[in-house]
Write a structure and sequence with these properties.
single chain, about 200 residues, mainly beta, Porin, 2 domains, eight-stranded antiparallel β-barrel, two-stranded antiparallel ribbon, about 45% strand, globular
Length: about 200
């Protein structure tokens, strides 16, 4: 009995020390709980897959028009390119800067824009917006509003904590007769990597 027990222990140790690829042959075993092989490998190597959370997104910022010029890269009927630099404050961004670049047609239809926001820590959030600028003001606007746009925006990913981010919302933006700036208030949701600041 003692020799049989020793044989079983020795056999178990040999199998336990062998490479798992030898045991499974050339086939990779199916991962558990529906995770991908990449997820399982990350877990086995001590790297957890980032947890994504959906949280409110708000940004208030002022834009300064840099140029409004005809541009051959704009597809007809859009033929004028508008470039705007902006800065402001936002959730998950802190104090940020950014840029809009978009084409406009004669009916003031614009976009989609190539836009980005650079957060206080240097992470970049890519966004895009399109719609139409409407002359005049709505009843809930201040008296000095001379044109406005309330259009949907989308979040297209980014760098750092914004890598893989998605989301959307609505703008509440206008131009003013009292200053040369564009005024922007965006509100929606963002799905991004879970962090201590967005629990």
């Amino acid at each position: 009995m003692k020799k049989i027990f020793q044989f079983l222990v020795l056999t178990s140790l040999i199998f336990a020390c062998s490479d798992s690829t030898d045991f499974w042959g050339n086939e990779t075993p199916e991962p558990l709980n529906g995770e991908t092989n990449e997820d399982e490998n990350a877990r086995r190597n001590g790297r957890d897959k980032p947890v994504m959370v959906t949280v409110p997104f708000k940004a208030d910022f002022l834009g300064e028009y840099q140029s409004v010029e005809p541009d051959e890269s704009c597809e007809l009927p859009q033929f004028v390119r508008v470039i705007v630099d902006f800065e402001g404050n936002g959730t998950h961004l802190g104090k940020f800067t950014g840029n809009f670049s978009f084409c406009v047609d004669q009916e003031s239809n614009y976009g989609p824009s190539d836009s980005y926001m650079v957060a206080a820590n240097g992470d970049i959030l890519y966004v895009s917006i399109e719609g139409q600028v409407i002359g005049g003001r709505e009843d809930d606007h201040p008296e000095y509003v001379d044109s406005y746009w309330r259009d949907p925006f989308v979040i297209l990913g980014g760098t750092g904590r914004f890598e893989g981010a998605t989301g959307s919302g609505m703008s509440d933006d206008y131009n003013s007769s009292e200053d040369p700036y564009s005024h922007h208030h965006w509100e929606g949701t963002i799905t991004m990597k879970k962090g201590k600041d967005n629990l």
